[in-house]
Amino acid sequence: MMKAGFPEDFLWGAASSAFQIEGGWDADGKGMTVADFNSFKRSDRQADSRTASDFYHHWKEDIALMKELGLKAYRFSISWARIIPDGDGEVNRKGIDFYSQVLDELLASGILPVVTLYHFDLPYALVEKYNGWADRRCVFAFERYAKICFEAFGDRVKWWLVHNEQNLMIRVDERMNISEPDAWKADKIRAQMDYHMFLAHALAVNACHEMVKDAGIAPAVSSTCTYPLTNHPQDVWAAKMNDWFKTNYCLDMHYYGEYPGYYMRYLKERDIVPVMEAGDETLLKSAKMDFIALNYYRTLCASYLPADREHPAGMRVYRGNEVDFDQYGYCRDEKNTNLKASEYGAQIDPMGLRIVLNDYYARYHLPLMVTENGLGTPDVLTEDGRVHDDYRIDYIRGHLEAMALAMEDGVHLMGYCPWSVMDLLSSHQGFRKRYGFIYVNREDMDLKDLKRIRKDSFYWYQNVIRTNGEKL
Questions:
Q1: How far from chain centre, in Å, is Cα 350?
Q2: Residues 127, 185, 192, 360: what is their CA dihedral angle, to the nearest 10 degrees?
Q3: The pLDDT of residue 330 is above 80
Q4: Quick check: pTM over 0.90?
């Protein structure tokens, strides 16, 4: 067993998101979100966001458990629709008050808040009014929402994340409320939405720097590490292109304020270059992120996929999970037979985390924070009321060791917020797929007593934090 080396100020944390943990979906004036709308469509098969883990009514108890766990940081999101129910109208004072209480309790417990402004839960009213991010008015609605948050919470929140996984979210039609059956038209809408989100990110970054003293703000990206299927040069190039098209183009846009050449070529190949207005370039280049937040769960494998008459260069075919795609003229998704996978198909690969940490630090030389990383499984509650999740301990231990090695490599790593602090609503697997250190006693169709139960991983991670990573 290697001896991990973590700095004394390392932020040991955990993570969640509003729609997956809060419940109280319409409590005290909150509006419906896209995440609510989509979860309600599956309510006959699994849990939805109406109750989730009911953090909205258990937040004091839950923060007490976070304090017991020893967390130094808690990464969570604010629900835009709890602050502004219709997205761009009147501010809901009760929403402001709720998050103020949460922040005060976290700080009183010695836990640093790391706050995400937008985690998959666009107010549904903006879909009905503007078709969401397809319309430029959504950009300015987000800017206003961000400024309201900075004004209300900036005295207590110094670490901010703008969009969670824009680079992945934009590939999932349900999360973007894209219902266009024509592939080219859907890609055109997607490209415009993506561009508008970049503008919104830039406006939020600049507003944060103007309004919040000593603040740090960043994107939270879904990181991608792709291995070539073979050592054939075209496969090696395909693996790089898979990373670039799924993640690096997004980071480059945030860092440099313009699309990299290969991505603009793709947009032109598909004839889907978004509408850009005068002043956009200046805005995008003016917004400077302070660090990079990354979510890491798996690695990928790719081979070269040539284009042909029926499949022109740049054309994408999305896989069944709506996340991965084959792209003609660039790359095809392949299975890596060298890795084991979780029950839900994510290949387990701590080395990939070391690779992406080194890659992003070398490319941008900005501090990094891991804001999601975890193992989703159907945990079992024993008759004596315990959850033995050694598999989760093994998973997180392996990734912590990879992080320690990355820091030895020279990477500036600020903290680690694994997913998730407690069991919460999985978008497509409800409460069958559990990630937490704390078991929430409910099932998809039975709320039971919602009791919080410490898993074996809770006590293990508590000791990791207590020893600053010396005992993994």
A1: 18
A2: 110
A3: yes
A4: yes
